[in-house]
Every structure is written in structure tokens, then in C-alpha cells.
Design a protein that fits this description.
Blueprint lengths: L13 H29 L10 H10 L1 H35 L1 H14 L4 H12 L4 H24 L3 H9 L4 H38 L5 H10 L3 H29 L1 H9 L3 H6 L1
Helix pairs in contact: 2-10, 3-4, 3-6, 3-8, 3-9, 5-6, 5-8, 6-8, 7-8, 8-9, 8-10, 9-10
Length: 278
């Protein structure tokens, strides 16, 4: 019988693994910025047409107070609208799950709502509800509601029939089956929809600010564009992108906290090299 030493548990640290996963994307992003910098500096392009990344960064730092002052309203509208969208998606998906006929009646309307161009509907919402926070909340909810709603409904439908039948045989009612079986089965679908929706939330808030607002990244971009300051426009775009990535990362973190067994299952799978050695 041959003796074989197994690799130590956690031989490759989580930090090293995370760095290995992020390195290709970071390298590609660095190469893109370097090419942009060289082209803007030596390509004969005027800074008022295409500013270099170094100029964008310098102007972002110089105008950091104004950027921060306009970022906070966008964050507030994004979070408020997304919270309303999340609550509405959960309530309506639950009702639809209990009333299948209502699903057949509502889904065509919900699908039609996604065909409305945001650039056209945003001015109308501002016209109907004014320049306050409400139209921004409504527009964010409009663009983020449908993916979560569909994900939850499909997640409920993925519940194993055997589990539902076993719970019913044990005397569980429909509501208890929903909480014990259908809702847990929908969690992976829900978080997939959540990650998709969260990337649209900031865009919806900025579109609403474009249509009419006192402060916000949308207003800041519009003002910088009218003053022929593409460096400030790109600085605001960089802030909105960073905000979107932060929200996406927060969604991933919440998923890991809510579903620790999923990550444990992935970590338990042997790596290809280990499978070959065995």
C-alpha cells in the first residue's frame, strides 16, 4: 500500500485565489488605460474631445467635493428605488405563485413595460410627479423590477415535486410548503436576478436626473457636457461605474452570507490536478 501525502487544507489562501481570479481582468483594464493614455497624448486629439485618463483622474480629484455632493443624491435614489423594487417583486411573485391565473394575466403587461424606452418615459415621469425623489424611485423600480420578478417566479417553479409532496404528506399546508421548500429553492434564481438588476439601478437613477433634478450625477454630467468638459463627464461616469461595481459586490457578499452552503459545496469539489493525482 503506497503512502500518499494529501495537500494541506487551505494550501492556497483565499487572498491568493482571489488575486489569481482578478489578475486577468486587472491586467486587461490596465492595458486599456495605457493605450487610451498614449493615444490621447500622442494621437493629436484635443483634450476637449478625448481627455487622457490622467487628466480625468486629476480633474476628478480637483472637483471631488462637487462630485461627492452630486453622488449622494444618486445613491439615495438608487437605494430607495431598488428597495421598493425588491419589496414589490417579492410580494407580487408570491401572489403570482399562489394564483397561477394571475400570472397569465400580469406577465404580458410586465413584459410590455420593459419595451418602454427609458429615455422617453423618464421626462414623462418627471412631468407627472415633479422634480423630487419620487420620480427617481419610480424609474429605478421600473428598470430593476422585472428581472427579480421573473427570477423569483422561475425559482419557485424549480422546487422539487418530491419535496413538496413529502411536506404535504406530513400535513404541511400550502403556505408552509412555500416557506420550507419553494422559497429556499428560489434563492439561487433570486440572487442571479438581483445581480442583474443592481447593475441597472444606477443607470435608472442617472436617467431620471437627466430628465430633471436639482442634484445628482446625471445633472453633473449634463452640466459638464454643456460646458464642453468631457473630462468631468468621464469623471462622473467613473464614479457611477464604481458605485455600480460596489453594489454588485455587495449583492455577491449578501448571497454568500445567505447561502453559505453553496460556497462550501464549490470548495469541496476537488481541483482537476487533484483528480488526476488520485
Amino acid at each position: 500500500m503506497s503512502c500518499r501525502t494529501s495537500p494541506p487544507q487551505g494550501g492556497r489562501s483565499a487572498v491568493t485565489a482571489a488575486f489569481a481570479r482578478a489578475a486577468p481582468a486587472a491586467l486587461a483594464f490596465a492595458l486599456l488605460l495605457a493605450a487610451w493614455e498614449l493615444y490621447a497624448r500622442f494621437g493629436g486629439i484635443a483634450p476637449t474631445v478625448l481627455p487622457a485618463p490622467s487628466r480625468v483622474l486629476a480633474q476628478a480629484w480637483e472637483n471631488r467635493a462637487a462630485l461627492a455632493d452630486n453622488t449622494l443624491p444618486t445613491i439615495g435614489a438608487t437605494l430607495a428605488g431598488f428597495a421598493c423594487s425588491l419589496a414589490a417583486a417579492f410580494v407580487l411573485s408570491t401572489v403570482v405563485d399562489f394564483l397561477p391565473r394571475l400570472r397569465r394575466a400580469l406577465f404580458p403587461i410586465l413584459i410590455a413595460s420593459q419595451t418602454l424606452p427609458l429615455v422617453a418615459i423618464a421626462p414623462l415621469v418627471v412631468l407627472w410627479f415633479g422634480f423630487g425623489l419620487l420620480p427617481k424611485i419610480l424609474l429605478v423600480a421600473l428598470v430593476t423590477f422585472f428581472p427579480m420578478m421573473v427570477a423569483l417566479v422561475e425559482g419557485y417553479a424549480s422546487t422539487s415535486k418530491e419535496i413538496a409532496q413529502m411536506l404535504a404528506a406530513m400535513g404541511a399546508g400550502r403556505w408552509r410548503i412555500f416557506w420550507l421548500a419553494r422559497l429556499p429553492s428560489a434563492l439561487p434564481y433570486f440572487f442571479a436576478g438581483l445581480r442583474i438588476s443592481i447593475t441597472y439601478a444606477v443607470v435608472g437613477a442617472i436617467f431620471a436626473e437627466y430628465a430633471g433634478a436639482a442634484k445628482g450625477l446625471g445633472i453633473y454630467m449634463l452640466s459638464a457636457k454643456n460646458n464642453f468638459r468631457p473630462d468631468l463627464v468621464l469623471a462622473a461616469v467613473a464614479v457611477s461605474s464604481a458605485l455600480t461595481l460596489a453594489l454588485f459586490g455587495l449583492a455577491v457578499l449578501v448571497q454568500r452570507l445567505a447561502m453559505p452552503w453553496e460556497r462550501a459545496g464549490r470548495d469541496a469539489k476537488p481541483e482537476p490536478a487533484e483528480e488526476d493525482r488520485s
